[in-house]
Hints:
By secondary structure, this protein is of the alpha/beta class. It is built from five helices and six strands; from the N terminus they run ααββαβαβαββ. The chain has a six-stranded mixed β-sheet, with helices on both faces.
Amino acid sequence: MLVSLPDALRAKQRVFDRTGGLHAAGLFTPAGELITLREDVGRHNAVDKVIGEQLLAGRMPLADHVLQVSGRASFEIVQKAAVAGIPVVSAVSAPSSLAVEAAERFGMTLVGFVREGRCNVYTHPERVTG
């Protein structure tokens, strides 16, 4: 399911289709169903929009969800996901070393380089199967 998320995210990026210059963050169920997607020029802003929407809707914590981001996984993205209760963060590109350390400390699964049907699981691989 994780390796399908970047394509699912990209397929719904309507503003990116017009501009070619936006990041996206998407919140998914464990089955890979897209709950919400937000775009912004800033990766962190897209994550803020996704989490803020869920907070305003009274859906916190987001313990049974996966956050997929279109770029790198930074410490700040991992931190925001942890505060929201999201146990899995998946990124198309690399995580920073600080993001890996934070995910380990927060008990989160951090996945990077999710592309072409493959991925690297950096922390808490017990949430990822086969």
